[in-house]
Specification:
Blueprint lengths: L11 H90 L1
Length: 102
């Protein structure tokens, strides 16, 4: 046996009421969505400000590190030039000694 339920009748008044409630619900959703977007934008703006500050700190640190590396490279060049000069002087001294003693 199949039980049939009576279908409700939808009058124009009931349809208008449903339409009005749906419009109000969509309006509330739009307002909440706009507020959510404002909150998200404020959060991202704050995060961007933090990243900008962090980038400034990193830039300062990398600049200091680059300066140290440049000074270290200059020091290596001076040391290398000194060693080459010492070796050339020793070689010349050995040649002169060999010629004079030889």
């Amino acid at each position: 046996m199949v039980v049939m339920t009576e279908r409700p009748s939808w009058s124009d008044e009931r349809l208008d009421d449903l339409s009005k409630r749906m419009d109000e619900g969509f309006h509330r959703n739009d307002v909440e969505h706009q507020e959510f977007r404002r909150e998200m934008k404020a959060g991202f703006d704050a995060m961007n400000a933090r990243f900008d500050a962090m980038n400034a700190r990193f830039d300062a640190r990398f600049d200091a590190m680059n300066e140290r590396l440049e000074k270290f490279a200059q020091m290596l060049i001076v040391i290398g030039a000194g060693l080459i000069g010492t070796l050339v002087t020793a070689l010349i001294s050995a040649i002169v000694a060999a010629i004079l003693l030889g």
